[in-house]
Each structure stands twice: as C-alpha cells, then as structure tokens.
Amino acid sequence: MMVLADQKRVEVGFEGDGTYSFLADAGDLRSIFENLIENALRYSPAGSALDVRMYPLNGRTVVDIVDCGLEFRVNISAAFSTGSSACLAGTPVGSGLGLPIALAAARRNGISVELINRQGISGLIARVHLQHAI
Known about the structure:
single chain; alpha+beta; Heat Shock Protein 90; six-stranded mixed β-sheet; 3 helices; globular
C-alpha cells in the first residue's frame, strides 16, 4: 500500500504500544486490513495523512484506520456499493468489492468493523474490533 501512499503523497503513521494477542486467520486478517487501508488511501486527498492506531478498548484489541478523505455514505453490507455520485465526484472508483470482502473475512473470524465519520473534520475511521486469544 505504500506505493499508492507515495503516489498520492499521503503520510502514513502508526500508533500503538504494548503486546496484543488475538485470534484470526492470517490471510483473512491481511484481507481486512489491505482492503480498509487501500480504501482509505484511495479516497484521501493528495498530501493528506492516514493513521493506523492499535489500542485496547473495552477488553478487546482495536485498530483504527483514520483518514482525511470522504464521509461514509454507503451501506457497508452492500456489494458493489461505493457511495453516492456526489460523494465520489472526480474520484476513481473500483469494483466496490473491497469492503464486502473485508467484512466477510471479519465475520469468519468473529471480528467486527465499524465505519465512523470523523467529527468536525472530513474523513472516516474504520474501527476493527479483534477477537482476543484465549
């Protein structure tokens, strides 16, 4: 994903400390994060920032992917749904399968995904609640 970030001059950062343990299939985990980060980069304006934050929340490990892109205006369970034309005007859009693929991989592993519009600033937080290891 760093090639796309470099092309758009999007600064990517990571915040997190400590050791986290959770259960998930490695391939599914990769699919979840590749799709969410690719979407965040795709819809973020050139020269903006994208942050990945990992922290404990309510007894679970949470990963936030925080971008400065567009507000979220789609049904997250609908395949091929990539947003309203007003929301994505002038933005290249893919097939719309990335988010449904990520959500299916999350469901298979007991992982939940929330999409939250940022308050007071353009952008989205994709929050991934990971299942703790026993």
